[in-house]
Each structure stands twice: as C-alpha cells, then as structure tokens.
C-alpha cells in the first residue's frame, strides 16, 4: 500500500495532495506558499544550492540581471514600485 503523503502548511494545518502529483518527479517535500488569491505547492529540492546553481547556468541572464529581475518581481507582487530604505 502506498504511503499517504502529507505536507505541513502554515499554522500547523495538513495538506493531503492529490495522487496525481508524481513523487518521482517532484520529490516528497513541498513548500506551501499563500499567494493571497491562491495556494502554490513548490517542490523543495534535495540540494537547494545546487538546484539554484543549475537554474542560473541555464539562464541567459547575468547574475546581476537575475538579481534585478527577482527584486522587480518581488516588488510587483508586494504592490510597490521601489525598495524602501531602512535605517
């Protein structure tokens, strides 16, 4: 009998994913992200740093361009246009 996978969500709640999620493809660990209007399951790689390096190698952008794109996307998601400086 296959084991039932469950993922801890925010506030200690449990999420039981559909059997359509292939554990061989995505692994057993996911991060549950609340995007306000939807919940997103993001697979957690076994080696996060190596996964990040692989993604950067496949990109045609420089490291500075990737950083700028990530900052822009984060600010857009937060509904802001520029980063606020703190003391």
TrEMBL record:
Biased composition (Basic and acidic residues): 53-70, 77-87
Domain of life: Archaea
UniProt-annotated stretches for the region Disordered: 53-87
Gene Ontology MF: a single term: DNA binding
Keyword annotations from UniProtKB, A to Z: DNA-binding
This protein's name: AbrB/MazE/SpoVT family DNA-binding domain-containing protein
Taxonomic lineage from the root: Archaea, Methanobacteriati, Methanobacteriota, Stenosarchaea group, Halobacteria
């Amino acid at each position: 009998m296959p084991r039932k996978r469950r993922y801890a969500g925010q506030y200690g709640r449990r999420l039981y994913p559909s059997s359509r999620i292939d554990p061989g493809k995505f692994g057993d660990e996911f991060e549950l992200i609340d995007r306000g209007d939807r919940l997103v399951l993001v697979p957690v790689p076994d080696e996060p740093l190596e996964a990040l390096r692989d993604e950067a190698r496949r990109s045609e952008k420089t490291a500075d361009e990737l950083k700028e794109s990530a900052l822009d996307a984060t600010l857009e998601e937060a509904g802001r246009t520029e980063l606020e400086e703190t003391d």
